[in-house]
Prior knowledge:
Elements: H1 12-19, H2 21-33, H3 42-53, H4 58-70, H5 77-80, H6 83-104, H7 110-141
Helix pairs in contact: 2-6, 2-7, 3-7, 4-6, 6-7
Amino acid sequence: MIETHGEQDPGALRDRIDAGSHELVALARQAVAGAASLDLAPGQIELLMGQAQGGYGPAHLVNWLRYQCGRSGEAKAWETSGLAALIIADIDTLRQSAEAIAESLTWADAEQRHEQAWLALVRRYLAYFARAYRIVWARDSKGGTTNET
């Protein structure tokens, strides 16, 4: 997914993630386009973003999304829209990209770099997802089409 080269530069991790931003945007747009519905309120996306910024890691986000699917009320839309499943699948895909990035950085702490890269990729992906969802949700609520992002 993201091009890698072996480096020891401390900024190399950020550079790798920045270089793959266009791919993260496309992945986020695909998730929004794949939604069964746009019933999820934008406030729920903001809650997800808050969880991502908490720094607990991708496994925490997956657990949080699964918990939301089991709830009733507004949070139930994570399940009915299909967005939770799409995001969880994308988080898993991003794990592979993070592994490639960590392996390309010739650091002694490659394991820690993998976790750091994975969380950074997930955060960036979710930011793009939130933007794409907000655009499509606003368009749909005004009577526009939902297949454009």
